[in-house]
Amino acid sequence: MADIVVLGAGVAGLGLAAFAARRGHRVTLVERDGPPPEGGADAEVADWERRGVPHARQGHALLGLGISVLRQE
Q1: 33 neighbors 52 (Cβ within 8 angstroms)
Q2: How many angstroms separate the CA atoms of 40 and 6, rounded?
Q3: Residue 50 in contact with residue 27, Cβ under 8 Å?
Q4: Between vectors from CA 34 to CA 29 and to CA 38, what angle results, nearest 5°?
Q5: For residues 51 and 1, what is the distance between their CA atoms, to the nearest angstrom?
Q6: What are the pLDDT digits (tens) for 41-72?
Q7: In Å, what is the CA distance from 53 to each residue of 20, 22, 38?
Q8: What is the pLDDT of residue 61?
Q9: Which of 20, 25, 61, 67 has an alpha carbon 20 to 30 Å from 2's alpha carbon atom?
Q10: What whole-number distance in Å separates Cα of residue 18 and Cα of residue 14?
Q11: Is the pLDDT of residue 9 over 90?
Q12: pTM to 2 decimal places
């Protein structure tokens, strides 16, 4: 299997990383923003300073659920 480097942990990057990993590839995901703050999905939306995603604070009704699903994956 291949070694794959994915730049950016946005929707496309996470999707590609998950797709490749499920097929047995070794995946390295590189993200320039820091890790999310402690406190769950609400803190991630309200307190996470993400220079790479200035629109990250927009209210999305399913954001908390989406984060939970990705973490379980």
Answers
A1: yes
A2: 25
A3: no
A4: 115
A5: 34
A6: 777 777 777 777 766 666 555 667 777 888 88
A7: 24, 26, 19
A8: 54
A9: 67
A10: 6
A11: no
A12: 0.59
| Rounded Cα distance, 50 and 35, in Å | 9
Three-state SS letters, the chain: CCEEEEECCCHHHHHHHHHHHHCCCEEEEECCCCCCCCCHHHHHHHHCCCCCCCCCCCCCCCHHHHHHHHHHC
Q: Rounded distance, CA 9 to CA 13, Å?
A: 5
CA 45/CA 67 separation, integer angstroms: 10
Return the structure tokens found at 44: 């991630």
Amino acid type, 15? G
Residue 5 tokens, joined: 């480097």
